[in-house]
Specification:
The chain has one domain: Helix Hairpins. It has 72 residues and is mainly α. The chain has 3 helices and no strands. Helices cover 72% and strands 0% of the residues. The two termini are 26 Å apart.
Length: 72
């Protein structure tokens, strides 16, 4: 997760789109037969969650620095 902290929001968004595309290809590309690496899907989902968590944390830091609090 440390490698994501130094990236900009645009870089994280591009990486997120790339990982989602890879997960989509894994899920729908293997419909005809068994996947060779069954852990690959789980790894993609984990990376997507890490990227989304980093994006959320960065946006919360920006909001907190600006004095705005998110309403829940």
């Amino acid at each position: 997760m440390k490698e994501y902290l130094n990236k900009t929001h645009a870089d994280l968004a591009n990486l997120l789109a790339e990982k989602r595309g890879a997960l989509r290809m894994f899920r729908f590309g293997s419909t005809g037969g068994k996947a060779k690496n069954v852990k690959e899907g789980r790894e993609h989902r984990t990376e997507i969650a890490r990227i989304m968590t980093t994006i959320s944390a960065k946006s919360n830091e920006v909001a907190k620095a600006a004095g705005n609090r998110r309403m829940k």
